[in-house]
Amino acid sequence: MSSTGSTYGDIHRYEPARESTAAAIAIVLLTIVEVVFVFMFTYGLVNGWGLSDTGNMFLGGILAVVFIDLAFILALYRKEFLPDVVIVKKRRRKWEDLYIREDDVDGTDLGGDAWEQVKRAVYPYYKR
């Protein structure tokens, strides 16, 4: 679904999420695996597995698996259950990203009008 609106904030494209059952089952199974590995990590940490060299590497591996599993869960959730929305944004010139005007590209005086500098610090896109 697309719209022809070009004003700031209009939805340019909206594609609803697929919400597949297979993805929901995969997220549930990955969550169960996540809980098991978090329990293993906590158990190993409490029992002092990290005091030996191999135990420390084992705990590090378990922690890596925990975060990789979490990444898969979040990627599946984002892909299958969040809609794809593109909104119209205001295009800015390069110097506006630097919070300066085109005529101030070469710099400004340090001891210039102090009140103008305060206004620019508070509101960077202030117009004269």
Automatic annotation (TrEMBL):
Ranges annotated as spanning the membrane: 21-46, 58-77
* A Pfam family assignment: DUF7318
InterPro entries annotated for this entry? Answer: DUF7318 (IPR055742)
Keyword Transmembrane helix carried by entry: yes
Whether Transmembrane counts among this entry's keywords is yes
Keywords from the named record: Membrane, Transmembrane, Transmembrane helix
Its protein name is Uncharacterized protein
Q: From what organism does this protein derive?
A: Halobaculum saliterrae
